[in-house]
Design goal:
Layout lengths: L1 E2 L28 H13 L2 E9 L2 E8 L2 E7 L6 H7 L5 H11 L5 H8 L6
Antiparallel strand pairs: 1-2, 2-3, 3-4
Helix pairs in contact: 3-4
Length: about 120
């Protein structure tokens, strides 16, 4: 991650480009506490960049812009928003499948549920 001023117009595609700058930190996070301290440091220092977390074969990537989490990805399908919402009882399997069909048209998961009336935009 690197400290960065407010991005200029046209720079967004370069925020997470490989080789843009040397990593600020790398190493092993051994406890949940260490991870929370790292996330707090990213937020407090308003850092921009990619935090990559690897545990075994599972890789998670968190993308930050000026300390704010803007996107996350995971190689574990159980980390998906839909899977989590099903596990927590926020949506049913049928609602998940209906939203998945709407997503095939290019719609995002959240907006598909808003269109279905399951969730509100707020």
């Amino acid at each position: 991650m690197q400290r960065e001023e407010e991005p200029r117009a046209g720079d967004a595609t370069n925020w997470f480009a490989r080789g843009r700058a040397l990593p600020l930190d790398s190493g092993e996070v051994k406890t949940h506490h260490e991870l929370l301290v790292l996330l707090n440091r990213i937020y407090s220092a308003r850092l921009t960049g990619l935090l990559q977390l690897v545990l075994g074969r599972v890789e998670r990537q968190l993308f930050f812009n000026l300390g704010q989490l803007v996107f996350a990805s995971s190689s574990d399908r159980f980390d998906s928003l839909g899977e989590m919402m099903i596990r927590e009882g926020a949506i049913t399997q049928a609602q998940f499948e209906e939203a998945s069909e709407l997503m095939k048209t290019g719609q995002r998961f959240g907006s598909a549920h808003a269109e279905m009336g399951v969730l509100t935009v707020e």
